[in-house]
Design goal:
The complex is a heterodimer of chains A (115) and B (109). Chain A starts with a strand and ends with a strand. Chain A is mainly β. The relative contact order of chain A is 0.33. In chain A, 0% of the residues lie in helices and 48% in strands. Chain A has strands at 5-7, 10-13, 19-24, 31-37, 44-50, 53-56, 65-68, 75-79, 88-95, 105-106, 110-114. Chain B is an all-beta fold. Helices cover 0% and strands 57% of the residues of chain B. In chain B, a hairpin with a 4-residue loop joins β7 (61-66) and β8 (71-76). Chain B is globular and about 40 Å long. The relative contact order of chain B is 0.34. Classes of the chains: A mainly beta (115), B mainly beta (109). Chain A binds chain B through residues 33, 40-45, 48, 55-56, 59, 91, 93, 100-109, and chain B through 30-31, 33, 35, 41-45, 48, 50, 88, 90, 92, 95-102.
């Protein structure tokens, strides 16, 4: 296992189209996070899973955003009816609580450009 | 909501010099992490600080945590060009990581 994997790395889409991103966490990690990062800013929290349960989703930016982790392994983030303001880097991270250490490991991200 | 502030936001320093980046946060937490990000890349974990008084060192970087003051520092010793990057601190609230605004470091030869 080489770390958190995200696919695709880059996505260009027309405004109004739907997009879906995939994240494969480190295999033994039960926690999975989605973040969004725009240029010059720190990562902004979107949602969080522990195993297959989505424990926090109030930060999803609008009802156009949804995330799933159906079997507690990989996760998908979907954006419906994309807008230009959705252009950003979408980062996935995973972690596992171990003696109080919840260190999160990040994937390479999916860069979304909405034209 | 937990707030995390870093300063400075931008730091330009000469090779060989020392400097400290500060990370203040607004509510109690004893889990703080430092990350490095190169342009266009993802975040690389640097340090894990899990208790008051924790100090970790790796090469020219040293991180510390004072949970009572809600303050973490990242100290750079004898900077080299390879350290140029953006550095983020992140505080774990239990169900998410709150990130600071980042410090963009440029080391000038």
């Amino acid at each position: 296992d080489t770390g958190v994997s995200q696919d695709p790395r880059h996505k260009i889409t027309k405004r109004g189209q739907n997009v879906t991103f995939r994240c494969d966490p480190i295999s033994e990690h039960n926690r999975l996070y989605w973040y969004r990062q725009t240029l010059g800013q720190g990562p902004e929290f979107l949602t969080y899973f522990q195993n297959e349960a989505q424990l926090e989703k109030s930060r999803l930016l609008s009802d156009r955003f949804s995330a799933e982790r159906p079997k507690g392994s990989f996760s998908t983030l979907e954006i419906q009816r994309t807008e230009q303001g959705d252009s950003a880097m979408y980062l996935c991270a995973s972690s596992s609580l171990n003696r109080g250490n919840t260190e999160a490991f990040f994937g390479q991200g999916t860069r979304l450009t909405v034209v | 909501e937990l707030k995390v502030e870093q300063n400075p936001l931008f730091l330009s320093m000469q090779e060989g010099k020392n400097y400290t980046i500060y990370c203040n946060y607004s509510t109690t937490s004893d889990r703080l992490y430092w990350y490095r990000q190169d342009p266009g890349k993802s975040l690389e974990s640097l340090f894990v600080l899990l208790s008051n008084g924790a100090v970790k060192q790796e090469g020219r970087l040293m991180a510390s945590l004072d949970t009572k003051a809600r303050l973490s520092t990242l100290h750079i010793t004898a900077a080299v060009h390879d350290l140029s990057a953006t550095y983020f601190c992140a505080v774990d609230s239990g169900n998410q990581f709150y990130f600071g605004t980042g410090t963009s470091l440029t080391v000038i030869p």
